[in-house]
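Q: I have 233 residues here and want to know how they pack in 3D. Can you give me a structure?
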Amino acid sequence: MRLLLVEDDVMVASGIKLGLAGAGYAVDWVGSAERALEVTRSETFDLAVIDIGLPGMDGLALTQALRKEGHAMPVLILTARDALQDRVQGLDMGGDDYMVKPFELPELLARLRALLRRSQAATSATLTFGPLELDTALRQACIRPSGTAGPCIPIELGPREWTVMEYLMLQAPKPANKDKLLQALTGWDKEITPNAVEVYISRLRGKLEPHGLALRSIRGFGYRLELQESPPP
């Protein structure tokens, strides 16, 4: 998942970005609302984390401007203001959630996961497709054999394999756009080519196909997670 962080305090932004990157998110950081508006007109993000106390246009005005421009991505507002009126105003101007500084990273991550699930119409921290289960809170993947009461069989996924798999499952049964999948893997700090996405797709196929799951290539668009018509014996 690709996140946009809008925070003018360099130390705070660095800490948040480090924590989010450690949780597997691709994070792009800007220090002003004006710059945030520029990048959202040309780039796609799954969620924005916006501080209220920005120089120039503040975070509330930015959130309102994003909504007026048609951006539907979830917005988590960060602020040092804890008055009820401030929280209400933030939500009324287009914010989806509100956190008061200082906060703990685990709570921030939990709130982000909840917002992302909501935006993708998922209601549980565990994503399922056929026998495949992804626990987004614990970042664990496993296969639950059909018709058995046995334990879920763990599947080892690297950080980027996890990102690809999570994105595919959030989109399923619809296909996932390859360009958006590429953006979910990286931000401005790193360059990943479309060929690299194909490498991760190939690795995942090798792990999923023995369990009756397929990753179908949609020519000119991307990939779709499917159940194989004839699962392997």
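Q: Anything worth noting?
A: The domain at 126-227 is CATH 1.10.10.10 (Arc Repressor Mutant, subunit A). The mean pLDDT is 86.
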